[in-house]
Amino acid sequence: MATQRRGRNNNVEVVGADNHSHGVPSSSNPSLRRQHPSPIFPKGVSLVCLVFVFFLVVIIVEFTAYRLLSIPSYSISTSNTVATISSKSNSDSDTTHSTHDNVSKIVKNQNVRHKTAAVSQYTNPSPTQQPTITANAIASYEPTATTKGKRVVTAIKQHHRNAQYWKTHTPDPVPPLDSSSTSTDDDTINAKTDEQPPIIAYVVTLTKCKGRASLDGAAVLLHSIRRNSYGWDPNLLQQLKDANDDKQDGDKDAPIYGGKGGRYRYRAYVIVDPSASPSIKGAKGECARYLQKIGYTVLHRPPLVPLFKLADADDEDGDANGSSTNAFYDELKKSGYVGMQRPNHGPTARHPNENPNKLRFLMHDDGCCGYSELLKLHVYGLVEHELAVHLDLDSLLLRPMDDLFDVMLAKGDIESRRSKLMSMMAHNLPRTKDVDISKPIDAAFTRDYNSVKNPSLDAPVGYQGGFLAVRPNIQVLERYRSILQRGEFLLNPRLGWGGKHGGFYGDLTFQGILPYYYEDVAPALEGVGHNEIELNRCIYNQMADNPRKSTYKFPRATPLDPKAMGFRDTKICRDGREDCSDTDCQRTHPKESITTHFTFAGKPWDCSEGNAGTVAHDTCIGLLREWYGIRRELENWWLSPPTSADKSRPYYWRKETIANVHESRRGALDADGTFLGYCDEHGSGGYRRLVEPDEPK
């Protein structure tokens, strides 16, 4: 018998042995049988033992991975500084909010454990194809075993790196709101001489600079705000086209809705995470510098509460230049960290078997942007403004939001405000509440029914993270800080904030903490008024979504040919009602909407097909077409030289830049229709980027 041996450890490893298996000789050779002892176990039992050993090894590996997450502290050395993250769960108080009186009952009666959920973006199917899911768009609620350790290290390093920034910096102050500081452009102001209207703060958030395509969204969004605000001259539209459009362009390329100015002034802000600061040289700071250039005011903001404890070792040596840390950093340290004041006992206490750091690690990866998404809460801190609106970069104003602002600021007679309110608020939904029209309204939002896992009338529903209008209030901001310090988010099972607001996409951060505040915390605070409105999501933050569940595993629009598409609508309404036809946003014409959010319709910079093969297609194509039209108008505006009163505005003036602008309009995909020449093919690879304006002369 010939055998082959290869070295490993003791240089012995059997690779192959004729007809033998597991060391048992062939029964046709008695001499060989005499040379080998009988196996310890019968042949069948040997296989069972091997399987048992295999599963035992798997269990040991999984247990080791879990124990790594349970280590009390982590020490990560970065830039000659050691960040020690303690997992000690302190509790300065055993008291709980009075809002949690019924949480014990909820937890006791809850017998359904929330499973890991996923959220995805979809590639747009043609009418004869089933939808597919892009690999990079899937985000699970919890880290998988293979990536858990990596995510832990990443979370700590990122937290440590951002904390270093605040040793030598403080939050940017809001510039004074005088006539020279507003973003209303002097060359577009019409002849209005009456008292200046309030300035609305429009806010976006930048947590990291991942790519330039979405910056086109920021530029077009800003222009949609500009053209629907006080000071924009409607007569300028035709002047721009006459002066700057290509010869073959006509009225078909102009925006269809809005563009006639508005009753309120505006200023645009971008809240920036230190990891995307414009002060960073190179690509990481490029996005913020671009937004600054085109008209956004940059505001650096820290987390309300550090995600992890800031260790003393972080500031022993001061900054890189040897100076001591500033007073602001000391205050940031004193604010503690997420969950530091969580009660040790009671219905919102951490489960005994729950890793002390699990909540913080999950928040780091939650939703679209992780813990950084909570930077959006700084919209409450813009107290220099009477109103502030936070929008995602993939949003667009189709028409002015003046009626909403009138209602929120209690402007006009009460009957007029009541009429406006009835036309914009959500009606007959399970959580619709009465609004006191005699008082100003503190917040306006839409709900994200698409993220409801098990629809029912009492199912928890998050607020949609792409739209929030508020009356800024520092006290409210401080209450959010307190919520994070207490960290009363129930896991195992995933019941959410206060045991009520969880189990949906983004529940750990922005989309979950908002309903927790307005529905639990604020109502329980004695003497604290709260007056908020749920808006009709087909009018504000319109996403062209289907109000019914689909047989597909993710929300989908109603297919025109269910057999060809491979899925169909069910009779189940996502809001738990029997009839939800009054919220069928996929059939809502763009002329009925005020703002839109490009989620289900696809991104304009992905040259989306707009839900081809579904009833939502016409609505989506109409919204996409408007985005491209406003982009065209923005380009024409940048092609127009500024007046002497507005010399600081960027515009196109170099010959090569102007040539590039006209070339960017010559895409082959439906150039005379939806895409206006900005796409060569469907998909992000076919999109023609917006040409960056030149610096002022």
TrEMBL record:
Chain intervals with Basic and acidic residues compositional bias: 94-103
Name listed for the protein in its UniProt record: Glycosyltransferase family 31 protein
Residue ranges of the TM segments: 44-69
Organism this protein belongs to: Discostella pseudostelligera
Alphabetical list of InterPro entries matching this protein: GNT1/Glycosyltrans_8, Nucleotide-diphossugar_trans
Region listing for Disordered, in residue ranges: 1-35, 85-110, 166-192
PANTHER family recorded: GLYCOGENIN SUBFAMILY MEMBER
Keywords, in A-Z order: Membrane, Transmembrane, Transmembrane helix
Record keyword Transmembrane helix present: yes
